[in-house]
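User: Modeling request: complex.
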Amino acid sequence: MTAPLIALDNASFGYDGAAVLSHVTYAVEAGEFTGIVGPSGSGKTSLLKLLLGTVSPQHGMVVRRPDVAMSYVPQLETVNWNFPVTVAECVLMSRVSTRLLPWPTQQERRDVDAVLDRLGISELAGRHIRELSGGQQQRMFIARALLRRPQLLLMDEPTSGVDIGTRHEVLHLLDELHRDGLAIVLTTHDLNGMAAHLPNLVALNRTVIAHGAPSEVIVPDVLEQTFGARMEVLQHLGMPVVVDGSDQVRLRTVAG
Amino acid sequence: MTLWQTLLDPFNYQFFQKGLVAAVIAGALCGLIGVYVTLRGMSYIGHGLSHAIFGGYAAAPLLGIPVVLGAGAWGLASALAINAVARTKRIGADAAIGVVTTASFALGVALLTKFGNKGPSFDALLFGSINGVSTSDLLLLAGALLFAAAVFTVLYRAFLFSTFDPEVADVSGVSVRRMDALLMLVLSVSILATLKIIGVTLVAATLVIPAVVARMLSDSFSRMLWISTGLGAAAGAVGMYLSFQLEIPSGTTIVLVNAAVFVAVLVVTRGQALRRAGGLDDHVESGAPAPLAGAVR
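Assistant: Request completed. Predicted assembly structure:
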C-alpha cells in the first residue's frame, strides 16, 4: 500500500491565538476526489493552506510524500480579470523557470497548446482574460494548474458565485480529470449542487466531524454537528438532497 | 536670432545636454517600474517613497554619510516598513504609507530648516531642476535603469505571476515576499536616482501616468512595458526641453507633458481606453447554461 500524498496528524492551526483548526487528522490518498464541506469560518481554507504548506500547524504534524506535486486553483474573484494578459500568457505563468529570457520556448508553447486543447479552450488562447465566461475562467485556472503536471489539485470553492450551467461544466471537467488519475480536494459550501455529486466528503467545523461517502456524511446528525442547524435529508435518484428549516416552512405553506 | 536658432539654442549648453540625457533615462526608468507599481495597486507608494527619501536626503549629510547611500538606505527601509505593515492587513497600505513617509518628509523639512542644506536646493528637491546634473548623477541614473531592466528581464515571469496572482504564485515556487522586497529596492533606487530631475512632489506622476496610458493603449503586459518605458523617456525629453525654454522646473514640465499625452489618448479613444484601464468593461457572461447532468459518480 502506497503512502498518502499528504497526511495531517492531529494538526491544529490558528491566527493570533484564536484556533481555526483543532486536532485535524486527515490523509489525502493518490487519486481521491474529495469535497470539504462546512459553514463559513469552519476552517476550510485554512485546511487547504495546511495541505499546500503555505502555513504550518502549531501542533501536530503534516507529512507530505517527498515526490508529491501539487497545484492550487484559487477562487475566481481573487484576481483582477482586467489584468493585461491573454489566456495563453496566464497559463504559462505556472512555468516559472530560471530561464533568463522572458519569452516561452517552443516546447513551452506546445505544452500550453496541449493543456488548453485538453480543457477545450484552445480557441481562446489569444483572448484577453476579461473576455472569458465564468466557466472558461475556471478552465483557464485549471489549465494553469495542470501545466505543472500535479498529482494533486487543490481548489478553493471552484463553483462559488457561478451559475448552474457553469457549476455543471466545472463538475464534469473535474470528474474527467479525476478519471485520468488526478487527485482532487476542493472546498465547497454547496451541499446539493456540488458536494452530493462527489465520491468523498469531509465535514469540517474546526475539526473533522465526518469523512466518507456522501451517504455517510450528508445525514442529519452530521449536518447538525457541522452547520449547527437541524436539516432534513431526502433521497432523489439515489442522491441525498438537503432541505433546511426555511425550505420546510415554505413547502408547508405552499402545500397548505 | 532666428526661430530655428532659438529652437536649437538649448543644445549648445552642456548642462542642458546632460539634463536631457538624465530626463530621458529618468522617464524611461519611471515608466518601466510604473507598470508594476500601478498593476499592483501601489500607485500611491511612489508619492510616499519620494517623500520618505527626502528625509534621508536631509539627514545623511548631518550624519556624515554619503547622500546616495544614506537616502537610499532610508528609502529602502521605509519601503520595507510600508510593505511589512501593509502585509499584516491590520491597517491598509495607504495608511502605512501615510504614516511612514509623511513622518519622514516632516523630519527632512525640520532638519533642513534647522541645520541648512548641504546638497541640492530645497526647491530643486521638491520640483526637480535642469541645473547641476553631474556625470555621477548620469551614472547613477544609467546604473539604476540597467539594474531595473536586468531584474525585470531575468525575473519577468516571477514578477508577472506575483503581480497577477500572488496567492498562487506563492505556492508555485515564487517567493512573493522576495519579489515584493526586490521591487521595493528597485523602486527606492530609481526614486533616489530621479529625484534631482523630477523632484519629490512629482515623481509619483511619472511613475503612474505613462503606465496608465500604456494600459489604455494595450491589453498586453509585455507591450505595456515597452509603451510605458518609451512614453516616459519621450515625455522626459520633451519636458526637459520645455523646462529650458519656459524656465519652469523640469519635474513640472515632464509631468505636464505626461498629463497632456494622457488627455490626448483619452480624447482620441473617446474614453474607451480609460474603461479598459479602469476595468469598467462589462464582464462577459457565459451563453446558454450547460444541460443538467446526472451525478458525477
